[in-house]
Amino acid sequence: MSEHIDKNVQRGKRAARRAGDEAADWAEPMARVGYAAKGFVYIAAGVLSAMAAFGYGGKTTGSKGALASLANEPFGQFLMIVLAVGLFAYAGWAMIQAFVDPEAEGTDAKALAKRGAKFISGLIYGGLGVYAARLSQGTASGSGGQGKATTWSAKVMQWPGGEWMVGAAGGIIGIYGLVQAWRGKELKFLESLDESEISPKERRGIKILGQVGLWARAVVFLMIGAFLIVAAVQHNPQQAMGLQETLATLLQQPYGSWLMGAVALGLAAYGVFCFAKARYRVIRT
Fold this sequence. Notes:
Elements: H1 2-53, H2 63-71, H3 76-99, H4 109-137, H5 148-157, H6 162-186, H7 200-233, H8 243-251, H9 256-280
Helix pairs in contact: 1-2, 1-3, 1-9, 2-4, 3-4, 5-6, 6-7, 7-9, 8-9
InterPro entries: DUF1206
Organism: Persicimonas caeni
Domain DUF1206: 33-100, 119-184, 212-281
């Protein structure tokens, strides 16, 4: 009897290993496609915003605005289909990182915070994938979601303790911005790359792109967090701003064109860095 049970246990273990191997077969390409799609969106948003800053057309925009602009270009609907697939792939990989923990982050407070951030990232990029899919079918608005931060913060403020929730969200986003700045300063972003595959010249380029990109993201997240905290303190959801409004605010400052242009180009640099991640990141499945 025990021998029969042992055989069933071994059979179950072999089946689990086969399932894991099959998952690994598709998880790595899914992750790499996802990083490339994320990079493309960042490049589009950054370039369009930089063009607006320096007076070469374009427009101040966030991720959704960039997708909406691209959808109106020749072959835009086909491009939206491709990007939707890529964004869903990135969302799926983020969820695997959050729940399966393939990179063995663990379950301490720091690890859970990182995995929680991956979960939120998965939701955001999954929603962006849905938006791209709707654009491909012509069923989504081309407004790019301007004012979304104001809309959701106004709704949350109607809840009991809503101002505290909005303020806490702003604090978390601000802390995430500080983490981005620290990762750029300490070159932590290089640790996830397979440097044995990278030439010294490529490493120098990736280092610059990663640092500039993370510092630009730090500026944006710190500003978005600050705006949310101000909105909570003043009980005024109109103070809440997303990426698009944050870049527009930079444009209104002294030397605004240079400020916004620098941040926008930094976001584009981060997009190029995402392509490097798609190529060289170590994917543990």
